[in-house]
Design goal:
Distance between the termini: 10 Å
Number of helices: 16
Strand content: under 5%
Order of helices and strands: HHHHHHHHHHHHHHHH
Structural class: mainly alpha
Helix content: over 70%
Largest sheet: none
Number of strands: 0
């Protein structure tokens, strides 16, 4: 497990640097605009993300899986990624030509923002997956962090010069595209160019078969993660929607640790690393998450309002209440991230699909049932419930797979602490 430990350490370091820079962008947008404008931007981004998810066909999951198992070479990976992006952009262009006003409701007249977001995000998703499969964690994330800092500086200059909010948002979308191009260039510079094992046709076939299975799970999870945005946008005030969406984005920050670890688990299990020691390590991580979110709940309950109104602005006065309701679900979602990567690396994607379907049904039914008395607080409770449902399903399936462990979340043993300490300890073994 030394290689697993080393890879996780590198991923945590690399992604932490990137996430801090992304949080800086998030804070800058909130401070330079307001809750209503920020809510509209992130609502539009959520719509664009759905287009990315469906149009990208979850190709990054398949590219990562086959690239990690050395069943796919760099040339075929680049060809498939660029092919998928070009086809999607052509479809979007045709839709815009046939229905000129279709995207206008989301883009505020800046239709170019849609194409920048879609192409930039897909480039980032596809080639980060392949870079991670190559165990290249630090450089791509450092470069993305530098770009984020540069973006904040430019936004600050525009804000000081009293540029319109629309100009700030255009800058944001241009940087998303720039980020994708840079990640592609890093991949081309870092990749090991090898002779392809099979024909392009056979590579296409196996990659897209896996991608279609992953797509079902990812679309369903997208509904779980983002459908609440639509209900909140429809049934609450613009200011409340801004509070909810900002709290939701902040909540995503708190599940980044398991998301950092997940690609390493995926790549390890894809290479046949699903061992007893791996399972013990997973159990230790889940116990650590339980402790972490318990502490977070206390901090937000006692000082959340003061922190968030001073950090994001006075209009974000309900963020702390929404986040408190999210926190129990965030613990279960953290466990789910690890287990989903575990199942995905074992090519047991069906488990993830069923769990995502259960969570999506919970999200849809829950949000419909609360429409007569809809508030952002009820919406947060429904989201938390859906995360719990999906995680319990994954835990049930995990316990059926040998070797697995019973997990006592209230008991942190010495062996658990050793696993956790080893994760963050850089001394060579």
């Amino acid at each position: 497990m030394i290689s697993l430990k080393k890879n996780v350490q590198q991923q945590i370091l690399a992604r932490s640097i990137y996430v801090l820079s992304a949080l800086l962008v998030n804070v800058a947008i909130a401070r330079f605009t307001n809750a209503a404008a920020t809510g509209m931007l992130f609502y539009a981004s959520a719509i664009f993300a759905l287009i990315v998810l469906i149009g990208g066909m979850s190709l990054e999951s398949a590219l990562g899986y086959y690239y990690a198992g050395e069943k796919l070479g760099a040339k075929h990976a680049i060809t498939m990624a660029l092919f998928q992006i070009i086809v999607l952009l052509m479809v979007l262009l045709m839709v815009q030509l046939l229905f000129p006003t279709f995207f206008a409701r989301f883009t505020n007249g800046f239709n170019t923002g849609l194409y920048l977001f879609v192409s930039g995000t897909l480039l980032t998703n596809f080639f980060l997956a392949t870079l991670y499969a190559e165990k290249q964690y630090l450089k791509p994330n450092l470069i993305q962090a530098i770009l984020n800092v540069l973006l904040v500086f430019i936004l600050w200059v525009e804000y000081r010069k009293n540029f319109a909010i629309a100009i700030l948002f255009k800058t944001y979308f241009y940087f998303i595209f720039l980020n994708g191009v840079v990640v592609l260039l890093v991949f081309m510079q870092k990749v090991k160019w090898k002779t392809e094992n099979g024909s392009m046709h056979s590579s296409f076939q196996q990659v897209y078969q896996y991608a279609m299975k992953a797509l079902w799970a990812n679309v369903l999870f997208f509904l779980v993660y983002r459908l609440d945005y639509w209900f909140v946008h429809q049934y609450t005030t613009v200011n409340d929607a801004g509070n909810y969406i900002q709290a939701s984005k902040l909540a995503q920050m708190f599940i980044l640790l398991p998301q950092f670890i997940a690609p390493v688990i995926f790549n390890t299990t894809a290479n046949g690393g699903a061992t007893q020691q791996m399972n013990e390590w997973l159990a230790a991580c889940m116990k650590f998450f339980f402790l972490m979110f318990s502490i977070l709940f206390i901090v937000v309950a006692t000082g959340g309002q003061f922190i968030f109104t001073h950090l994001f602005g006075s209009s974000f006065n309900n963020m702390h209440k929404v986040l408190l309701l999210f926190i129990p679900g965030l613990f279960f979602l953290s466990c789910l991230n690890l287990l989903s990567a575990y199942f995905g690396g074992m090519n047991r994607v069906r488990i993830n699909i069923v769990g995502a379907a259960l969570a999506a049904v919970t999200t849809i039914a829950g949000n419909i049932l609360i429409i007569p008395f809809y508030t952002i607080f009820w919406a947060a409770l429904v989201s938390t419930l859906s995360y719990i449902v999906a995680a319990l399903w994954a835990l049930y399936q995990y316990k059926k797979m040998p070797p697995s462990l019973s997990i006592d979340l209230l008991s942190l043993k010495k062996s658990d602490w050793r696993f956790i300490q080893a994760l963050f300890h850089s001394k060579s073994e």
